[in-house]
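Incident review: delayed structure delivery

Summary: a single-chain prediction request sat in the queue longer than the usual turnaround. Root cause was a stuck worker, restarted by the on-call engineer. No data loss occurred. The affected request and its eventual output are reproduced below so the record is complete for anyone auditing the incident later.

Affected input:
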Amino acid sequence: MRLQGSIQEIASIGCARNKEKTGHSPSRIELFDITHVQANGQAANAELKEVKHLKSMLEQQAIQMAKQRRHFEEQQASQMVEQRAHYDNMMMQMLSYITSQSGQFSSDH
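Output delivered after worker restart:
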């Protein structure tokens, strides 16, 4: 039972420290991290070390995907601006042509 009390104490201290740093209580994942790390900051066992490595890789992939999405959205916005400018230019040319044809039609009749 002492082990259970020790985990609860660690969790309680970890919760308090996390709340001081972030302003909120830790999530279950954050609490797991707090209670499964040695005093030197290293993972408590090989499995946790692997989990932390995979978590880090997933976070990096998520960051990369967000960057790619932002780049794609910026490209789309740029293309839309170009298309709108082309459309406006064609409309101006068509209006100019119609106006010139209207003037010719009026002078012919």
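Verification: The first helix runs from residue 2 to 22.
Action items: add queue-age alerting; document worker restart procedure.
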